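Reopening this ticket.

The earlier resolution said the output was attached, but the attachment link was broken on my side. Pasting everything inline this time so it's all in one place.
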Amino acid sequence: MMVGEKMNLKNKVNVLKLISTEMKKVIDFYSKNTSDSPNNADLSSLRDAYNEDRKFWNADAPSMRSTKDVSVQTLYGNVLTRLFQPAINTPATLFYIHGGGFILGNLDTHDRIMRLLALYTGCTVIGVDYSLSPEARYPQAIEEISTVYQFYSRNTEKYHINMCQTGFAGDSAGAMLSLATTLWLRDNNIASQEIKANLLWYGLYGLQDSASRRLYGGEWDGLTQKDLESYDNAYLGGSGSREAPYYCLFNNDLTDNIPPCFIASAEFDPLLDDSTALFDTLNANKIPCKYKMYPGTLHAFLHYSRMMDIADEAIRDGAAYFKGQLKR
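Inline output:
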């Protein structure tokens, strides 16, 4: 069987009949307000459409006491970051890494998520606008995020942040990059003990086949088998290995010096089994972690908190978990 033919389409689960009422409202909203995109749309057009779409979902986000854009110099050029500070002095700093299949997204597309996370944690949230693929290949994004982390560790007083207690958070590809960067910092003896927790919403962590990848995914979530392969190819490049230890995180050392992890999944997400496999791996190695699956949801539901209470719940759950790992 060829890689792109892992399931007869007739055998796939009809998830649109099973999703929650809230999730159906989002699907209905898209059916009424979005015109079909051509299958051969170029990457620039896809990015423009994604950015435009997220404007609606980011509206009415909470205000912060302070927001500030800071450009950080890396080996690959400048990387834009954005600080969300709900108070003058905050107990910790949480770095948010946005999703988008490595090829889409920026600080604006995930603005509401970051603001809610800052509000619910009471901590400074720093978004990182890492370089997208295919212009940037693995492991450039990880190295950029690592450099950003080190920059803020050297400039705590200038930006009024606490880097004695930190964490990473991210959705989808951003969840994988969050954990990958944590491992990178650990393995290069840059940071470990000050990273108090990771918040990982419906990430991909290196599985290439699973029951959920066969049963779920379609045009409704942009996660067909072909889509998943295209994201991998863009990020890794033609010669990139899907077994690389900062891509397939199960090939890294997940037995020691891993911060506590909040691992969240969506019930009808083809990446569901990535999350359960990660939880089972960490749990078997006695790494503190919490797993929660959000029923009736599709991949990317975290964006839809304007319409879905469960999306707000998922952000609150992650925030509560992070706060629980901090020393007061």
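Reporter confirms the inline version is readable. The chain has ten helices and eight strands. The longest helix spans residues 309-324.
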